[in-house]
Amino acid sequence: MSRIVDKLYEFFKAYKDYDPAAKSYWEIILLYPGPKAICCHVLAHHLYQNKFYFLARFVSELSRWLTGIEIHPGAKLGRRLVIDHGMATVIGETAEIGDDCIIFHEVTLGGVRFDPIKRHPTVGDRVVIGTGAKILGPVHIGSDSRIGANAFVMKDVPAGSVVVGVFKD
């Protein structure tokens, strides 16, 4: 039980440290959509890993309805992920996000194929993804990168990069 409490504290502390507008942990827990979506995802992902696919999708859809943030139960989220505002954010089934990332609203981590393969992005640690960015396909975004607002990314991004505009082959 102590381990769960420690992880929850670490998670909510990440939001408090990130957002100067957050006045209390209760405000974050009760009023911010990002933490609600991520907490629901933890449950949905656990169900998904244990092959309770329908129930996992049900929890995921309920979360989307409550928060406006769509995270497929198969997606893998790192520690201390902050989804700021979040409305219209979509994270696909095979997406993987590293630790200490920040994602703003209207971001899509989507696929370009429907084959049962790795088809969504992998995001390294400490990546910031700006409002409206679309990262599509099984691309890798290197750690410590910054993806600008409304960027369109369809190829790998080296670690420590800044990407704005269209970034594809």
Task: Please describe what this structure looks like.
The chain is of the alpha/beta class and 169 residues long. It is 33% helix and 20% strand. It contains 4 helices and 15 strands. A 6-stranded parallel β-sheet has the order 1-4-7-10-13-15. Strands 3-6-9-12-14 form a 5-stranded parallel β-sheet. Helix 3 (33-49) packs antiparallel against helix 4 (53-67).
Structural class: alpha/beta
Strand order in the sheet with the most strands:
1-4-7-10-13-15
Tell me the total number of β-strands.
Answer: 15
| Tally of helical runs | 4
**CA(first)-CA(last) distance:** 48 Å
Q: Which runs of at least 5 residues are low in confidence (pLDDT < 50)?
A: none
What proportion strand?
15-25%
Largest sheet: 6 strands, parallel
Helix content: 25-40%
Instruction: Using the CA coordinates, give the radius of gyration.
Output: 15 Å
Average pLDDT, all residues: 95
Summarize the structure.
By secondary structure, the protein is of the alpha/beta class. It has 4 helices and 15 strands. Helix 3 runs antiparallel to helix 4.
